[in-house]
Amino acid sequence: MRFRCVVFASILVLFAAPVAAQRTSAILRGTVTDASRALVPGATVTVTHAETGFSQTAVTNESGIYNFSQLPIGRYQLKVELQGFKTATRTDIVLAVADNREIDVELAPGSLSETVRVIAETTPVKTSGGDVSGII
Description:
By secondary structure, this protein is mainly beta. 15% of the residues lie in helices and 38% in strands. The strands form two sheets. Strands 1, 4, 7 and 8 form a four-stranded mixed sheet that branches. Strand 2 (44-49) and strand 3 (55-59) form a beta hairpin. The radius of gyration is 31 Å and the shape is elongated. The model has no long low-confidence stretch (mean pLDDT 82).
């Protein structure tokens, strides 16, 4: 009887170990570069779950790398922003259980925005009378 208990306990431990090691989430990581392929540190990277609205934000390190671990499975949108660059967006990123996806992003140069206000003055028009006049 004791032998059966030892065998049963051994089998239970062998099968329980892989179950505990299973992941139910995904990893999303990548590198952010500019148009000249230079690394871009300090960029803000945001992932948003399309169905739930859940979002996480990270900042790229000195090597331009971002990393999101433990993301719930589903469809995501990835947005990368940095002043002086246009915002880059990737949509329809589908993460499955235990995915380890790498999505590199290239930022295009952007321009500083300026506001130009134009004020035009018009010559008043005489609306009364039918006189026609002019300077010769």
